Amino acid sequence: MIKSTYYQDLTKMNTFRMKVKAKCFIEYDSVADLVDIEFDELSRPILHIGGGSNLLFTEDFKGTVLHSKINFIEILDECQSIPEAPSQASLGPSPYPGVGKCLLHTNVTSSDSAEVLVSVGAGVIFDDFCDWAAKEGLWGVENLSYIPGEVGASAVQNIGAYGVEVKDVIKTVYCYDIVEEEFVSFSNEECEYGYRDSIFKSPEIKGRYIVTHVVFALSREPKPVLDYGHLKDAVMSACGECQSASEAPFQDLLPQAARCKSPQDCLPDRSRPIAVGGMSQETPAAEKTTKRITPEMIRKVIIKIRKEKLPEPSVMGSAGSFFKNPVISYEHFHKIEQAAKAEHGADFKVPHYELPDGAVKVPAAWMIEQCGWKGRRSGGAAVYEKQPLVIVNYTGEAYPEEIIGLERRIIASVKDKFGVELHPEVDHI
Fold first, then answer.
1. Do residues 111 and 43 both lie within one domain?
2. Each residue's pLDDT tens digit, 219-275
3. Which one from 150, 165, 402, 425 is the annotated catalytic residue?
4. Is residue 311 part of a domain?
5. 17, 53, 150, 196: which one is catalytic?
6. What is the CATH number of the domain that holds 369?
7. pTM listed for this prediction
8. Is residue 321 annotated as part of the catalytic site, yes or no?
9. Long-range CB contacts (< 8 A, 24+ apart) of 419-422?
């Protein structure tokens, strides 16, 4: 079904909570609906939004806003070819509020492959998908938990968090080409993914392709990514032995028998050999340890971390991380490090991540805080007091000009102090 309205209020459809309207707003329920939309007759420009989690509306939108309600999660049999459209007839009721149909407990394949292909509608709330995958014991998106937005937008933006980007698990992106009026698909390589970037954001084709559904390659094999920031420590706290419940905020995640002391101990025990009479033999199934790190456990840890660092969009409008983390040369980083040691002492360590090509990624949040912006207000806008990478609609009544003005002053001060130019991660519309 296609629903069209004029001068639609978009306040609740962008996480910044900008009070703007769209000249025309179209919401659709299925892949087939796209064929029935007369794109040539729509007011230009055309903007497709998910949850509006990466947008800053600077004014009323004078064109047409499209929003997908294609909501399904379907496990694909590996022996099947990936369909161009979901097999809706094969789907059953879903327990997820945002998901219309869902095939949950399918015998995916008779092979020994650990890979599980999952087709997900563009309108599915991305965190609902993460929740579903974690509960199914499928690895790949647990580190991306609690990122606002929808599945279609995640494939366009290449969302990322805690050492994982969605490109790491995307196999194919299916789209509708509004110019040629046909359905097309893009392999992972054809999407040309980069840091918070993809081919869909290139000026030449931006807005031409509407994502209908995405096929993800998840895994039954345990693949915990814990080497980003303090994530490993948080997970270890969740599964480690503690003296009291007060010392173990995550103790409810694991039974007593499942607690462990290291990530290695927590991984599924694949019949760990034990010594018997000088020989090694497999542990009987009934005696196998239950110690493990699970996708659900990592998801819950990450949700707790994110809730402690980031504002709830329903309480305080924001677009999450406002700036990209800059990537600089090692030589440039060395200069920043030397200056920081001179200012803070010889033992001071600048947070950074060394990349395989020799470049260095420096957290934009650290630079912004060093420039004194954390918690500062400018009219109705502010830098979030718990995470300087986030600009918030502090009063709920912030004007776009106030947010943009704050953005520009932050960029200028970081450039002046560190010689690094920050670039916004948020799209200005």
1. no
2. 999 989 888 778 888 887 777 632 222 333 333 333 333 334 443 444 433 333 323
3. 425
4. no
5. 196
6. 3.90.78.10
7. 0.76
8. yes
9. 419/332, 419/335, 419/336, 420/326, 420/328, 420/332, 420/336, 420/362, 420/367, 421/326, 422/323, 422/324, 422/326, 422/364, 422/367, 422/368
